[in-house]
Write a structure and sequence with these properties.
Elements lengths: L1 H12 L14 H9 L7 H11 L16 H12 L1 H12 L5 E3 H4 L3 H4 L7 H6 L5 E2 L2 E2 L2 E6 L1 H31 L4 E3 H6 L1 H4 L5 H4 L7 E5 L5 E5 L10 H8 L1 H7 L14 H12 L17 H16 L5 E3 H4 L3 H4 L5 H7 L4 E5 L4 E5 L14 H13 L7 H8 L3
Antiparallel strand pairs: 1-4, 2-4, 3-4, 5-7, 6-7, 8-10, 9-10
Helix pairs in contact: 1-2, 1-3, 9-20, 13-14
Length: about 400
C-alpha cells in the first residue's frame, strides 16, 4: 500500500502528458514531500510502512534541510533518471558489432546494462524513443536495435570525440597529476568515461600518446595508466586561475571556520576576518597530500581542493559520489568527505538521496540550473535528448540532419 501511495503521489505531480513520449519528470524531493503529506490520513500500520519507505536511504534526501535545497539542480538528476535508458542502451548497442542489435529475449535480462527497471518491459522503454530505437523482426525473432537515424547520430558523436581528443588527453594528464603515484587503473577511467567525456575506446587510444602516457601492469595484474612526464604548466588548479581573475569571489567560495564560544560576540564581518586566517592560503591539489598531517586544516583544505579540481575536469562540472570515490585511493580521500563538502556549501551543492547523491560545482551553474559553459559534447547530448522526446522529425533542420545520412 505504501508503494502504491508513493507512486500515485508521484504520478499526480507529473505534468499532463503531451505529444512527447518522455514527459519532464517531477522532482523526487517534491514527490517524497507529497507522499509524506498523506501520513496523517493513513491507518497506523500503513503509516508505519510509508514512513519506513520515506526514511529509506533510497528516498531520504542527502540534504536534510529543505531551505538549503536547490530545486533547479535537483531537477538535473531527475532528468538523468528520465534518460537513463537512452544513455545506457545506446552505449551498449553501439559496442555491439554491426548491425548493433540484440534479441529482445536477451535484452530483457540486461536491465542493468540497458538502464531500465528490473521486471519492466524493455520494449516499452524502447518505444518511448521511436526515433532512436526500434524492434525489427529478424528470422521471426524480435530484436532491439538502433534506428538508422540513431546510427547517424552516433557517427556524429564519434567525429566529435576525435576533434575533442586533445582536450580529453589534457584533462586525463591533469587527473594523473592529482593522484599520489601519478597512475590510475584503466578500468576506473573506463567506468567514469561518461563523466570525464572520454570516448568508449579511450583505453586503446592512450597508446597513441607515448609522450604523455605509459601503460603498465601493477602487481595485482591490472592495466594502469601512468603519467609519462610532469608538466608544471598543467599543475595550476581552476581555483588558482579564478583567483587571478576574481580574487574576491574565490575568497567568498571557501570558508574553514574557527570555532569560538558564544561568549565571544562577533558580527558577520569580524567572523569572516577570523575565518580568513585559517581559510587562506588554500592548499594546491597538485601538492603531495601524503606529506600533510591527517585531520589538520591543511589536510582538509587539500582534500576539498582535490574534489573541486576533479569536478572542474568533468564534462558537466558534477559527478555522482561513487564516481568520485572510484578514485578514493588515488586521490587520498577519506570517508568523512560528506561533512567536509557540506561545510563548503558556497562551493558545492549536494543533490540526490543518501544512497546515490551527486556533487555540483555551484559556480558552474546559473540560477536556473543550466551549465554556464557547455562542452560541445554536452550540446550533442542535449540534442540527442531532444530527439528522444520526439515521435517524428518536425522542423526543416531536423529533416536536413536526417537526410545527410540517408
Amino acid at each position: 500500500m505504501a508503494r502504491r501511495l508513493f507512486c500515485a503521489t508521484r504520478a499526480l505531480l507529473l505534468p499532463a502528458p503531451g505529444p512527447a513520449p518522455v514527459p519532464a519528470p517531477a522532482s523526487s524531493a517534491a514527490a517524497a514531500a507529497a507522499a509524506a503529506s498523506l501520513l496523517p490520513l493513513l491507518p497506523c500500520k500503513r503509516r508505519k510502512k510509508l514512513l519506513k519507505k520515506l526514511n529509506s536511504p533510497r528516498v531520504a534526501p542527502i540534504e536534510p534541510e529543505a531551505a538549503r535545497r536547490v530545486p533547479a539542480l535537483d531537477a538535473v538528476l531527475d532528468r538523468d533518471a528520465a534518460f537513463r535508458f537512452l544513455a545506457r542502451a545506446r552505449s551498449f548497442l553501439a559496442s555491439l558489432p554491426p548491425p548493433h542489435r540484440i534479441p529482445l529475449s536477451e535484452a530483457g535480462k540486461l536491465y542493468r546494462e540497458l538502464g531500465f527497471p528490473r521486471g519492466r518491459s524493455v520494449s516499452r522503454a524502447a518505444a518511448r524513443h521511436p526515433l532512436l530505437f526500434h524492434l525489427p523482426v529478424v528470422d521471426s525473432v524480435p530484436h532491439l536495435a538502433l534506428t538508422p537515424f540513431m546510427r547517424s547520430l552516433l557517427e556524429e558523436e564519434r567525429r566529435l570525440h576525435d576533434e575533442l581528443l586533445p582536450s580529453r588527453v589534457h584533462a586525463v594528464r591533469k587527473l594523473l597529476m592529482l593522484t599520489a603515484h601519478r597512475r590510475v587503473p584503466l578500468a576506473k577511467l573506463h567506468h567514469c568515461r561518461a563523466v570525464l567525456g572520454l570516448p568508449d575506446d579511450f583505453r586503446d587510444r592512450v597508446r597513441d600518446f607515448p609522450d604523455d602516457f605509459r601503460v603498465a601492469v601493477d602487481p595485482d595484474g591490472r592495466h594502469v595508466l601512468e603519467l609519462a612526464r610532469w608538466d608544471p604548466a598543467l599543475a595550476v588548479s581552476a581555483l588558482e586561475r579564478d583567483f587571478v581573475v576574481d580574487e574576491r569571489r574565490v575568497r567568498r567560495t571557501f570558508r574553514f571556520a574557527v570555532p569560538h564560544r558564544r561568549s565571544m560576540p562577533l558580527d558577520a564581518e569580524d567572523a569572516d576576518r577570523l575565518d580568513a586566517v585559517t581559510t587562506f592560503p588554500l592548499v594546491s591539489p597538485y601538492t603531495n597530500g601524503a606529506l600533510l598531517k591527517p585531520w589538520t586544516p591543511e589536510a582538509e583544505k587539500y582534500r576539498v581542493g582535490v574534489v573541486h579540481e576533479f569536478l572542474s575536469l568533468t564534462l558537466e562540472k558534477r559527478a555522482l559520489i561513487h564516481h568520485i570515490f572510484e578514485f578514493k585511493d588515488e586521490l587520498g580521500l577519506t570517508r568523512h568527505m560528506y561533512e567536509s563538502l557540506r561545510k563548503q556549501n558556497r562551493a558545492f551543492y549536494l543533490a540526490g538521496t543518501e544512497m546515490n547523491w551527486a556533487v555540483f560545482l555551484r559556480d558552474a551553474y546559473d540560477d536556473n540550473g543550466v551549465l554556464k559553459e557547455k562542452d560541445p559534447l554536452v550540446l550533442f547530448n542535449e540534442k540527442l535528448q531532444r530527439y528522444a522526446c520526439m515521435t517524428k522529425l518536425d522542423s526543416a533542420e531536423d529533416m536536413d540532419d536526417a537526410a545527410c545520412f540517408d
